[in-house]
Amino acid sequence: MTTLVESRGQRVQKFCIKNVLPLGFFVVLVIALAWPAPGKAVAKPKVGDYRLVQTINVIVIFIISGLTLKTDDIKEALSKEGRWGYIYGVVAILGITGAVGFVAAEIPFDVDEFSYGLSVFCVVPTTLSSGVTLVMNAGGNDALALLLTVTTNLLGVVTVPFYVKGVVNAGEDASIDPVGLLVKLIISVLVPLVVGKVIREAVPGAKARVKRFKVRLSLTSSAMLIMVVWQTLSRAQDNLTSVAFTQILSVIASGIGLHLVYLSINYPICKYILKLKRREFKAVVLMSSQKTLPVSVTVIGFLGNVGQEGLMTIPCIVGHMSQLFMDAYIASRWANDDVAAVEDEAEGAKTNGVVSTI
Question: Where exactly are the transmembrane stretches of this chain (predicted)?
Fold first, then answer.
C-alpha cells in the first residue's frame, strides 16, 4: 500500500515538474482575477523605468539561461550537415517569422492590446530551453538547436526593438523609442545571459553544479516567469474581467493559427528546398517555428505607454502554450517514427539473414 502511494506521488510530482508552466499560469491567472491586490503590491516598487521585482525576476531567468547554455557541441552544429540549416534558421527566426508580426498587427481584435501582444510575440527570438528539449526528445540535432537559441537571442536584443517599432502602430501619444528599448533589453536580457555564461565557463566546478541542480534551476526559472506573469495579470485585472469570452477564444485561435503558419513555412523549405538530413530537419523546423515567452514579456513590460501590459501578455502566453503542446506532439510522433523505422530495419535484416541461411 505504501509503495502504491509513493508510486502515485512520484507520478504526480513528475507531472507537475513537466507541466509547471501551464499549471503555474493557470494558478496565477485565477489568483490575479480573484485577488489582484498582492500582485499589484509586489509590482508597485520602481527604480526609474524598471519595476523592481519584475526586473529581478527577468534577470534571474537569463542568468540561469546563461548558466545552462552548453557550447561544447558547437563545431558539430556547424558541420557540413548543419551549416545551411543554421543559416536558414537564423534568417527564419529573426526575419521570415518576425515579418508575420506585421500581419498579426492587422488582426481586427476588439481589444487593441491583443494585436500588439501577438505582434511582439512574432518578432522575438526562438525559445530559450523548451525548444532544445523538444528537439532532443524528437531525436533531432540538439547542438544545432542550441546554436540557433544562442545566436538568435543575442542578435534579437538588437533586432527586436526596431521590429517592435515597426509592428506596433501605437500613434503619436504612445511612440516607441527603439534605442531606449534596445538599452533596456541589453541590461535585462543580454547582460544577465552573458554573466551566467561567464560563470559557467570561468568558475571552477560551475558546470558540475549546474548539471547536478539542473531540475532545480529549471524550476526556479519557471517560477520567476510565473511571478512576472502573476504581477502583470494582477495589474490588468480590471481590464481582463471586462474582456468578452469570445475575444479570448479569438486570441486562442490566433495563437494556434500563428504556430501552424510557422510550421507550414518552415517544413517544406527545410524538407524540399534545403533537403536537410533528418536530425537537422527536426532541429531547424522546431526552432524556427517557436518564439520565446520570457523575452516577449520583458519587452511588453517596457511598453506601458502603448496599452495595458496584462492584456498584451495574454496572446504571448497563449502562443507559447500552443507551440509547447503542438510541438510536443510532433516531437513524440517523430521519435516514434524513428523507433518504428529502426525496428523495421532490424526485422528486415533478420529476415534477410534467415533467407540467406536457407
Answer: 20-38, 50-69, 85-104, 116-136, 143-164, 176-195, 215-233, 245-269
pLDDT tens figures, 36-66 = 999 999 999 988 878 899 899 989 988 988 8
Question: Could you give the CA distance from residue 58 to residue 93 in angstroms, rounded to a whole number?
Answer: 22
The 10s digit of each residue's pLDDT in 15-31 is 888 778 788 888 988 99
Say how far apart CA 162 and CA 184 lie, in whole Å. Answer: 13
Rounded distance, CA 206 to CA 45, Å?
Answer: 33
**Matching residue, cell 535585462:** 188
Among candidate residues 100, 157, 95, the one with its CA nearest the CA of residue 128: 157
Residue 180: in which H helix or E strand, if any? helix 178-185
The residue that leads in pLDDT, 6 or 102, is 102
For residues 269 and 266, give the distance between their C-alpha atoms in angstroms, rounded to a whole number.
5
Calculate mean pLDDT across residues 173-186: 76
Q: Give CA–CA dist 33/26, Å, rounded.
A: 11
CB 286 within 8 A of CB 327: yes
At 36, phi and psi to the nearest 5? Answer: -80, -15
Query: What is d(CA 138, CA 3) in angstroms, rounded to the nearest whole number?
Result: 32
**Do 87 and 287 meet the contact criterion of CB atoms below 8 Å apart?**
no
Per domain, the residue ranges of the chain are: 45-234+244-351
- The identity of residue 181, as a single letter, is L
Backbone torsions φ then ψ of 116, nearest 5 degrees: -60, -45
CB 168 within 8 A of CB 306: yes
Residue position matching grid coordinates 543580454: 190
User: pTM score, two decimals?
Assistant: 0.80
> Pick the residue with more confidence: 355 or 50?
50
The secondary structure of 22-56 as a DSSP string is: HHHHHHHHHHHHH--HHHHHHH--EETTEEHHHHH
Chain CA centroid to CA 197, Å: 19
CATH match for 45-234+244-351 among 1.20.1530.20, 3.40.50.2300, 2.30.30.280, 1.10.10.10: 1.20.1530.20
Residue 92 has pLDDT above 60, yes or no: yes
